[in-house]
## 1
Amino acid sequence: MPVYNTVLIEKDAAEPRIARLRLNRPEKLNAISSTMPGDIRQAVEWAEADSEVHVIVVEGEGRAFCAGYDLNEYAEGVDPGNIADDHPCRQEKMPWDPMVDYALMKRNTEDFMSLWRCSKPTIAKVHGYAVAGGSDIALCCDLLVMADDAAIGYMPTRVWGCPTTAMWTYRLGASRAKQLMFTGDTIKGVQAAEWGLANQSVPAAQLEEATMTLARRIAGVPRSHLMMHKMVVNQVWMSMGLEQTQMFATIFDGITRHNPEGLWFRRQAQVEGFKSAIEWRDSGRHIPEGDEARALVADLENRLREAKAKL
């Protein structure tokens, strides 16, 4: 089996027509590091190349499917050694180059979209959380099976993020997608199934069996048939402008991280810790904007300089 830094991929021991792709950063709730998107794509390519594999199940090791981007790495600026000082997500290189940012985040989007573009059906098996960037991974899969108590949503729409895959509208329709994007709220598996976002929601204890029952049913269909049916359905979304929508979403994601509100969120995370920044973002308190955000950024940057001077 191939070996990657952040994911595992293997054929199911009892059902070799089913590949199991597992996000494998359980100590971080499978938060997305800078290398995980590429690892996902390479794992998908491995399963794509294996003629025995008919379907891919995507799941998370430990307590969650995926809790989004690793904010220790991206928001606080704690570098594990794999992000350069001029990485656009650091927001420190000024003037900010939006096209450099776009190229980076577009690459992540394309890596996630490998789950959607590959010829073999993909099933997201969601427990715990599939939130923020983690929801991008789940919604790039063809099908979604959730535990009743699992949560899915994109909280950073309140500040510091725009879902680059733009899958919410295509999966939910405009009205419900707007509700979740405007509020940053999450929904549980039961509601996701009621809304048609998830194909199925089951008690957590039944999630494995429900997912594998669906995967086994699909795995009995010839690969060529699965490929043709997936191409037909995907083409509908392509004709509706999916690629153009993702272009706008990815550009806007960069703007949300570099405008005054985004800089405030990052500085709040750097000075007070990402938990403090997230608590503010999700509490319902108004998000500082415009001149208010700029004033808070100036104050937080002064505190950063003072803290560094004491070191």
## 2
Amino acid sequence: MATTTKAAAPAKKQGFGGIKAAWIILVICCVLAYSFYYFVLGNPDNFVGGDREGHPANLMGTVYKGGFVVGVILTLLLTVIVLGVERFFAIKSASGTMNLGKFTAQVKALIRDQKFTEARALCNKMQGSVANVVLASINAYEDVEKNETLKKAQKVAKIQQAHEEATQLEMPTLQMNLPMVATIVSLGTLTALFGTVLGMIGSFQALSAGGGADSMALSAGISEALVNTASGILTSWFATVIYNFFSNKIDKLTYALDEVGYTIAATYDSNHTEA
């Protein structure tokens, strides 16, 4: 059996770890969204006669006529985009510096050969969440090797426990802020429905008034309904794609962790025949 010298501590992942206070992102996006809504979409040049109360002269003016709900939807859309960028860099940092599949194959081979010094060096090179968990499992392997009071089954359980505990420490970093994205998936559609209903109420009010003089009010109500519907669907679409994309990334990391953890426990089990 190869004898290794245990490092003092595993090297933690370096780089971007994510933004913990996601509500700050929401507030900033809200300010930006309503600034864009009022100053850009609501620019007088986007309306006939240079008056916001007038008929829209272009698409931006039409979107502005969607009402204050447009600002809410823009806030959600910007938040999703920013959180998507934030999760991209956070998960990229957690994934390490090497290709995940290549790292998993190499570290499994080293562990099977009980080349723990090389495996540790590979983890230090890889960094990231997977490397941290593998290092914790290797440390547990070497600890139980020196413990003569435990039975084989207990030692294997110790290795598995160390692996699971290390995984649980890393998972919050990977999943952070994704619940907010998942919430926006539903909020985008619901907010769109809310804006649509408000627009239809305005349209029916114009119809109930009767006469051609209310045709502008009718047009504004229909625009409000359709703009909110379209922008809300777009927001939910972005949120769904981003959530599923990063959930898939996290699943791949989790599978890699489970695969290496099983290899470490199985290696100990196969190399020790005592009860």
## 3
Amino acid sequence: MSKNLTTRSEDYSKWYNELVVKADLAENSGVRGCMVIKPYGYAIWEKMQAELDRMFKETGHSNAYFPLFVPKSMFEAEEKNAEGFAKECAIVTHYRLKNDPDKPGKLMVDPNAKLEEELIVRPTSEAIIWSTYKGWVQSYRDLPLLINQWANVVRWEMRTRLFLRTAEFLWQEGHTAHATKSEAIEESEKMMNVYADFAQNFMAMPVIKGFKTETERFAGAEETYCIEALMQDGKALQAGTSHFLGQNFAKAFDVKFANAEGKQEHVWGTSWGVSTRLMGALVMTHSDDNGLVLPPNLAPIQVVIVPIFKTDEEFDKISKVVKELATQFKKINISVKYDDRTTQKPGFKFAEWELKGVPVRIAVGPKDIENGTFEVARRDTLTKQVIAKEGIVNYINDLLETIQNELFKKALDYRTNNITEVNSFEEFKTILENKGGFISAHWDGSAETEEKIKDLTKATIRCIPLNRVEEEGICVFSGAKSVGRVLFAKAY
């Protein structure tokens, strides 16, 4: 199997696009800006979904589902949110087609089937959900309301890229209502931490926890918490956000509750989400010029076994041994595939599974059967070892854990080496153009300075780190006083 991948150093963007397609993760569809997620890509998303869903339920959340369509008047109720998403909205105006009398065999919009009120195809679900919550919340006994939904949303992006930015994408969105401000803030921070735990423990992707500047905040939020990751090309990627909404949506949709004293109050809200953009993050964090590198905790296939044989007799002997081995793996929840296709040669299979990022490959030939050994290859390091049959199951179990940990450490080392402190704008520009990565710099806190830096360099403030040291300094751009450093980067 010929991979013919563009190398990362040659053209990182082209490498990414080719890899997503050639590794059978996704492809462009017949609808501009939309993608088809293929079975192998969807299998990875399902593993992400399963782990996140478990984590949400462990923190007390329940799943529900809300409509795809939002009446325009409802969408407009929270002004900042409506304004923030207005340019990306797809709108339904009619509900029927009819035969075009001037063009036989063609259809046209029926002008008599105009909707009384236009419908927005949800770019996010705050409006429809908060309008529903009005009927669900009457008393403090109904709170907190902790709801998540797995859904698709539509944002009419002009420049699209598989997984990273598409007109329609899959995600989850949590929407919660609370009796007090402190509870809602605690929920926002908790969900940011859930996302960070998932990114680090399952994706093997280190993230920086922080909050957004007012300019970068979610439309309609009082505060936006985020996790920011760094890709191999030195660009940042926002991997998840959690928003403290204050009482903005509760007031817009009149969601009130009677407190313990019987007094009416507006509830406090949060919303939080991650999307199939995480698939792009996974690809770009670990993969190499040979294809995908998947962390074992999210790999649909953790171990692939490839037989090497010449005769049917050899194949039967190998298959018998492999089936016994596969049974032992399955008993300890290691996902295994026996690639027993007779239509492809071992070399083709090796290349294919390497491209698809399967963490461990085991090759078994007649000599291995005689010697009671297996050849074990690691995808992350492309190294091989011969392992005795007796200890193979425990060895592979430990190896998968080792690979998971080492992938995280490699990504963490890369990020650590690519956070650069600068103290002047000249230094800022030099690092941004020649090294990339996160730039730690003093900022005066003004939206005007933030916008000017963005216009001049295309770098944005990715986050104000939660653990930043409060220190007096001088803004790298304006020379005005600063109370601490923030992280800038070019981003996806």
## 4
Amino acid sequence: MRERYEEQLRKLNVSLINMGKMIEIAIESSMLALLGRDKDAAAQVARNDQNINEMERDIESQCMRLLLQQQPMATDLRLITSALKMITDMERIGDHAADVADLVSKVPDCKYGKMNEITEMSTQIINMLHDAVQSYIEKDFDKAKNVIAQDDLIDSLYHTIKKDLVKKIRETNEGETILDYLLIAKYIERIGDHAVHIAEWVIFALTGERE
């Protein structure tokens, strides 16, 4: 019985890793679509979002089977319930990546001067997501805490972009386009928030305490 339980836990971990990779690819693809003005890539992000949704449902089913069939206690129970919470944030990340890709058809070009900051935000967030999922797999408290600490950099980049956008709205007649860029930056910043939530659930799984 215990061997079967351990195998189910290993399968859950593999599924979480795969879902993590899927959302990392979604973020990368949405940024490539934006920077390259690639509408085909943007459409692919939208199609892949359905796969992410299906993965969420599959992991949810795995967690429910573990809870109902194995009736885990203490740390194991927290690990499984935390996985259920994590996949909700991961699914929302997929949604936000699709939101960014959707805006590709609306933003005429990439002449906005803060694209480097937007790219830096997305790169940093992909690393955060990877570490957040790995902290769960490895049961690494310090790695989860480090993910949370990195959120300050994301917030700083976002506020730099926001401040510059507000200035450009006042100085130009391209308010609608600039607001689309602001939405893109906001979606990416929200992805960072979800990465932090994932790390917080890891800490809960390991300690029983919420950040």
